[in-house]
Write a structure and sequence with these properties.
With 404 residues, this protein is α+β, with helices and mostly antiparallel strands. The protein is built from eleven helices and 13 strands. This is Galactokinase.
């Protein structure tokens, strides 16, 4: 299987050159925007349960080149995909499987129109992504937010970064029919380099926390598994959490979301949920939310050992309580835990494939990757992908690049 995390990265300079070769015109008329991938340091599957999450942008980007047209036509092209699309800005867009990635873009345009924003012309787009699709570091949200930000800036729409995130989420809900949480879009829209972000998914209140890792860094580990279960299991887990919440509410517990419960409250009231599976799902939510708070304190105090232990606890809960890991992610995490210089590791994203992250001493990166790769290949039968990542900025415009 091709290792999408180790391929040569596509540069903004290449994108500008390709844009001009495809569409013609002068470079001064083109604007280029960057939209990052993200990791969630900790706080998994609780964004839709009223919990706090702790994501950070990383320095892997999707790039969007855009230019207004003189007519009402819209052109979408991507340098890595053969499909290209033509629409008209005055259309009433509808989801169609044949439209592939264009659905994400048309969903954004639909939400902007519903906000009363008026397009006076069409535009042309060329995109290139260095973010692995389906890898658990949020390629679809990078596409949504990058496109939304690019369009709003190009057309002079006064839309805040928080609204960009909400538009991305609403596009998923109403156009793509995916009931996602807000975390991915929010960190991609509002993130800052060298900071992680504590986000309260119930209130959208957030706090920047300096991401100072000293002689350590995060390594993203891609299972390279084609995920087939994640969407259906995501919806199943969400429904299970909603069932658990209703049981507690019916018993007189005055909460609006599972993550409003403290650990003490949970221990007092968990017996109200008789179903063992529902109880496990709810217990993960309560304690994962507490781990987020502890992780933020650990990072503020520079206690990376404590942070690493919390990552391990998170993975174990996602495996035994929430049951969304699978053999591939478990193999990566368990192999990582055994390596010298690894402070902690866990799955990130929806699960059942995708990615895991590990906090590793920089001087041990090469041996860590070699050893985990060997263990993974021996057990799974094919190789995983790895890259060490730094922090990145949220969606932003790049300075105009001189054509070479």
């Amino acid at each position: 299987m091709e290792n999408s995390l180790t391929k040569k990265e596509y540069s903004p300079e290449e994108l500008l050159n390709d844009f001009l070769e495809i569409y013609g015109g002068e470079k001064d008329s083109v604007r280029i925007f960057a939209s990052p991938a993200r990791i969630n340091i900790i706080g998994e599957h609780i964004d839709y349960n009223g919990g706090k999450v702790f994501p950070a942008c990383i320095n892997r980007y999707l790039y969007v080149a855009i230019r207004k047209r003189r007519d009402s036509k819209i052109f979408y092209k991507d340098v890595k995909f053969p499909l290209s699309f033509e629409f008209d800005i005055n259309e009433n867009f509808a989801y169609s499987k044949e439209n592939d990635y264009a659905n994400y873009l048309n969903g954004i345009l639909t939400q902007l129109k519903e906000k009363g924003l008026v397009f006076d012309c069409g535009f042309e787009i060329l995109m290139a992504s260095n973010i692995p699709a389906g890898g658990g570091i949020s390629s679809s949200s990078a596409l949504e937010c990058g496109f939304a930000f690019a369009v709003c800036e190009t057309f002079g729409f006064d839309v805040s970064r928080t609204e960009i995130a909400k538009i991305g989420q609403m596009s998923e809900h109403r156009f793509m029919n995916t009931k996602c949480g807000i975390m991915d879009q929010f960190i991609i829209a509002t993130g800052k380099k060298n900071f992680a972000e504590i986000l309260d998914c119930a209130t959208l209140e957030y706090e920047y926390v300096p991401l100072e890792l000293g002689d350590c860094c995060f390594i993203v580990m891609n299972t390279n598994k084609v995920r087939k279960l994640s969407d259906s299991k995501y919806n199943e887990r969400r429904a299970e959490c909603e069932q658990g919440l209703k049981i507690l509410q019916s018993a007189g517990i005055k909460i609006n979301a599972l993550c409003e419960l403290s650990a003490e409250d949970w221990e007092k009231n968990k017996s109200l949920i008789k179903d063992e599976i529902l109880q496990k799902r709810a217990e993960h939510c309560v304690f994962e939310n507490q781990r987020v708070l502890k992780a933020a304190v650990a990072l503020k105090n520079g206690d990376l050992e404590a942070l690493g232990k919390l990552l391990n606890e998170s993975h174990e809960s996602l495996r035994s309580k929430y049951e969304v890991t699978g053999i591939e992610l478990d193999t990566l995490a368990e192999s990582a835990w055994k390596q010298d210089g690894c402070l902690g590791a866990r799955m990130t994203g929806a699960g059942f494939g995708g990615c895991a992250i590990a906090l590793v001493q920089k001087q041990k990166i090469d041996s860590f990757i070699e050893n985990v790769q060997k263990a993974y290949t021996q057990k799974i039968g094919y190789s995983a992908g790895f890259f060490a990542c730094g922090s990145g900025d949220g969606v932003h415009e790049l300075p105009l690049i001189s054509r070479r």
